Automatic annotation (TrEMBL):
Gene3D superfamilies in the record: 1.10.1740.10, Winged helix-like DNA-binding domain superfamily/Winged helix DNA-binding domain (1.10.10.10)
Gene source species: Agrobacterium albertimagni AOL15
Residue ranges of domain RNA polymerase sigma-70 region in the record: 5-69
RNA polymerase sigma factor 70 region 4 type domain location: 107-157
Database matches in InterPro entries: RNA_pol_sigma-70-like, RNA_pol_sigma-70_dom, RNA_pol_sigma70_r2, RNA_pol_sigma70_r4_t2, RNA_pol_sigma_r2, RNA_pol_sigma_r3/r4-like, WH-like_DNA-bd_sf
Gene Ontology molecular function: any one: sigma factor activity
Taxonomic lineage: Bacteria, Pseudomonadati, Pseudomonadota, Alphaproteobacteria, Hyphomicrobiales
Name the record gives this protein: DNA-directed RNA polymerase specialized sigma subunit
Keywords: DNA-directed RNA polymerase, Sigma factor, Transcription, Transcription regulation
């Protein structure tokens, strides 16, 4: 993957540069392209890496332009300090943090009551973002077993959290 990216790096930079017209942003987006491509290759979802690299770079550049345009429309010049101080912070309240901590504890407890294989399947799928095929090969089981274990684990954890919420 590194060699392919290195071979196409200059072309990717120029593709992005033509869109964003800023060398440092182009460099950042090229690096993000590499990270996304590497993750996609690890998950086995890429057939033509060169095309994937260029399409990902182009999409990231266009997304950047959209975000910049949206931000420019939302930002207002000349806001006074009093107004800015009155805007609430984007952090959870103490109550929300306690609820989330309690929910996490219930989730962790539910996870520990699952069979070891179901725990592994859930963690590899949802945390490590592995494909079912990769999990099956890693654990030496069928994809269908991975699917069933994942379904069991998700339902078990969801039910435990629902009991906490009183649903």
């Amino acid at each position: 993957m590194n060699a392919i990216f290195a071979a196409h790096r200059r072309s990717l930079l120029w593709t992005v540069m033509r869109i964003v017209r800023d060398p440092s942003i182009a460099e950042d987006l090229a690096q993000e392209t590499y990270l996304r491509a590497r993750k996609a290759v690890e998950n086995g979802r890429v057939e033509h890496i060169e095309g994937f690299l260029h399409q990902t770079a182009r999409n990231l550049a266009l997304d950047h332009l959209r975000r910049r345009k949206t931000r420019a429309g939302a930002e207002v010049e000349g806001l006074d300090e009093a107004f800015l101080a009155a805007v609430s912070a984007d952090i959870p309240s103490i109550e929300q943090a306690l609820i989330e901590r309690q929910t996490l504890g219930v989730f962790q407890q539910a996870l520990t009551t699952l069979p070891k294989r179901a725990q592994a399947v859930l963690l590899l799928s949802r945390i490590e973002e592995w494909s079912n095929l990769r999990i099956a090969e890693h654990l030496g089981i069928s994809e269908r077993t991975v699917f069933n274990d994942l379904k069991l684990a998700m339902a078990h954890c969801r039910d435990a959290i629902a009991r906490l919420d009183g649903k």
